[in-house]
Specification:
Layout: H1 6-33, E1 44-48, E2 52-53, E3 56-57, H2 59-74, E4 79-83, H3 94-104, E5 112-115, H4 121-128, E6 138-144, H5 148-157, E7 162-168, H6 175-191
Parallel strand pairs: 1-4, 1-6, 4-5, 6-7
Antiparallel strand pairs: 2-3
């Protein structure tokens, strides 16, 4: 960096400092959002889709389903909206695989709505609104810890009035990668006006 003129070097150093502060601020928000409390009277639980291998749910998706299942068992008035379309390499839609998983665990089919058209978090939340009769009702969004902040803010932007994260964990070995990726996803969401 000695080859840089001092003014350019100062600007570069300042840009790096701003980026570092921005990164740490966003990461702190991701961590804090994952620690939010869930009220006892959530009426709808939207389970956000994630990759399916064949017809089987992956670890990330299983974690989302497990926290949703636990809440649904403890709160029998809550209904579940499983949301996710079918990717090119998936044998069934994510929603179909999720519904099957919940049925196998004993959740009644009349408590599960399927939204099978989405291919992004934004679409998951936008399309899941069709199943929500009262937008004033409390809605829980089941997703992995690193993803809660963005999911909640997207939902609010889409008109959800009372929304909460239902936080699932993440494999420790994968978490740093997801946290860095989520920083860029949040920045992109702000830049394109979705957050």
């Amino acid at each position: 960096m000695q080859w840089m003129p001092s003014g350019v070097r100062s600007m570069f150093d300042f840009a790096v400092l701003v980026l570092a502060v921005l990164f740490l601020t966003v990461e702190a928000k991701l961590i804090l959002a994952a620690r939010g409390r869930i009220p006892k009277d959530v009426r709808y639980i939207i389970v956000l889709g994630a990759q399916v291998r064949g017809k089987r749910v992956t670890d990330s998706l299983k974690r989302r389903l497990d926290v949703s299942y636990e809440y649904a068992v403890d709160h029998p008035d809550a209904v579940l909206i499983v949301s996710g379309g079918q990717g090119k390499d998936e044998e069934v839609s994510e929603a179909s695989a999720m519904k099957e998983y919940l049925l196998e665990r004993g959740i009644s089919s009349d408590r599960i709505y399927m939204e099978e058209c989405s291919s992004s978090t934004y679409e998951n939340l936008k399309n899941s609104k069709e199943f929500i009769e009262d937008m004033e009702a409390k809605v829980g969004i089941a997703t992995n810890d690193f993803h809660v902040f963005r999911a909640i803010h997207l939902a609010k932007k889409l008109g959800y009035k009372s929304v909460f994260g239902i936080c699932a964990g993440t494999k420790a070995v994968l978490k740093p990668n997801y946290m860095v990726r989520e920083f860029f996803a949040v920045c992109k969401g702000v830049l394109i006006g979705k957050l």
